[in-house]
Specification:
By secondary structure, the chain is mainly alpha-helical. It is built from ten helices and five strands. It has a three-stranded antiparallel β-sheet. A two-stranded antiparallel ribbon has the order 1-2. Helix 1 (about 5-15) packs across helix 3 and helix 5 (about 80-95) crosses helix 7 (about 110-120).
């Protein structure tokens, strides 16, 4: 079993960026030897037509190449920043909700959050008749992603929320 293969196994299993020193400690090998084998491993991945690469931006990690991320995003659950997740929660608990009301509750960043949630397919937006605002609500993809059966009462029950907050002070949280 070569040192390079053992390093590859560590990078694969750990699943997060690790330093040369951490790899050396795990494998009980000299850091200089690790560094040389890592360079060779990186060249190996770079030279083949693989969907994977060894990246060294913030430590060493095996990851999917950027050009394959569209495939990954279809298979791996969407990750949301806490502020966007909070906005999604307000939409889910108050749906259907006007986008202008959401802005009142969540602040000016709500528009950016809505754009991201629309892009990820977690909410839908419908133009109101005779009004400039939009109505927002969650999609089946939202229910599937959060493993909800039924409506937002299920979500309220999971979150142990008796009455969803009505005013900005109760709903707006630090982002």
């Amino acid at each position: 079993m070569s040192l390079k293969s053992r390093i590859e196994a560590v990078l694969f299993i750990v699943g997060k960026a690790v330093t040369i020193e951490e790899i050396a400690e795990i494998l009980q090998e000299n850091p200089d030897d690790i560094e040389g084998e890592l360079a060779e491993l990186m060249m190996d991945y770079a030279s083949r037509e693989s969907a994977l690469e060894v990246d060294d931006e913030s430590g060493y990690i095996i990851q999917v190449r950027e050009e394959y991320m569209d495939i990954v995003e279809k298979l791996v659950p969407v990750e949301l920043k806490p502020a966007v997740l909070r906005t999604l929660t307000v939409i889910a608990l108050k749906e259907p909700i006007r986008q202008t009301r959401l802005k009142e509750l969540r602040g000016a960043n709500a528009y950016e959050h809505v754009a991201e949630l629309l892009e990820k397919g977690l909410i839908s937006r419908k133009k109101e008749k005779n009004n400039r605002s939009y109505t927002l609500k969650t999609t089946p993809k939202f229910a599937e992603y959060f493993k909800l059966k039924g409506d937002t009462r299920t979500l309220a029950k999971i979150l142990d929320i008796k009455n969803p907050p009505e005013n900005k002070e109760e709903t707006q949280v630090e982002d």
